[in-house]
Amino acid sequence: MSDALTRASTVSFLLLAAALPWSMAPISIALVLCAALTLLVWGVHREGWTRTPVDAPALAWLLALALASAFAVDPAGSWPRVAKGLLLFMVPVAAYHARDERIARRAIAVLLVSAVAAAVFALIRFAAAGPHFPNRIRGAVGHPLTYGGQVLLFASLATAIAVRGRGRWRAGALIALAVLLPALAGTYTRSAWIGYVVALAVIVAFTRARWLAGVLGGVAAVALVLPGAYRERAFSILDLQNPWNRERLHMWDAGVRMLRDHPWTGVGLQDLHSLYETYKPPGAVEPAGHLHSVYVQVAATMGLVGLAALVFLVVGILRATSRAFVNWKRAGARYGSPPGEFAAAISLGVSAAFAGFLISGLMEWNLGDEELLDLLCVLVGIAFGAVSWARHRAARAGGEPLAIGGAPDQLEEAAGAVGVTSRLR
After folding, report:
1. What's the total number of domains in the chain?
2. In a domain? residue 332
3. Distances in Å between the alpha carbon of 76 and those of 83, 262, 275?
């Protein structure tokens, strides 16, 4: 019975990976199923959850959400949104499953295949409706900004695998990019475009730093030769008189005013349409339920307490996503050519994707999109789970059990040493 429950939990995790590129309904069903079955497995096996660097920041973020709601302008509208903070606890759930390299690889493969299928579906619909702006690729989620954020995360991961992976993984990642990048372009989502360029720069900088200037020059050259609507959309980023940019500036100005009036815990998490009408500057014409920037939105709705919690959360996520890559680099500096390059590629890819997500968040409220938050949490968990791959492989190859005590970095360094020694034998 215990084995059957474990297998069911694993299948639910793979179903979640398959659902993430699609709409909110299948994502929510798969997420609840995976979380419930994983909790049952932990209870039956008497296991604690997989501890991650995101745990404490997630609790701090939940506390900040609760404080913002307690002192909100509209507490009744704010409190229901606190529950969205619980999604961060999908990070340890995903990390638990991804500590097994075979399951993690299957989940990554399923995720990318499903993302490609969703992109093909979106491209066909786009072509049928007429592939010209203002028509935009909306994906299964039904909104170009949300879908652009999804493809940013998928394409960043695929790029890292294409650059640092080998064999079938590299070939598969290149095929995925051949579909994902046109889909990203067709969203006409400028923040997602910029986010992907940032993710690409991070991947190149930590792989072949001397190529970085050439890659960025190539991106600039591509922007210059893009077809008319794409080129105009790209260069509109620099035009402060562009209508979309002007309205964003008005929203940010309103957010600063909200922060001044409610500096500690903000105005609350409720929809901002009515408040925005009070705070918007003269000349603003577009209604706004949020402020089109993660940082302005958090400052306005959660105050300085929320901004501090956000910084703590960002640091925790970066620690979780980058640990496998950092440990691999450290082992390489000490032992030459350690095993575990695929784990390092996944770690770097998710770290780069998160960097792109943060930059995109300068211009969009992407942290408020549940479809993006679900995907991000699963990717962060997989990246952190990759820390365990080398340790488990090394223990099997060397026949040497590793001590249970000690910090994770010390254990991983020991694993790297065992892995290199057994490989040299």
Report:
1. 1
2. yes
3. 13, 18, 15
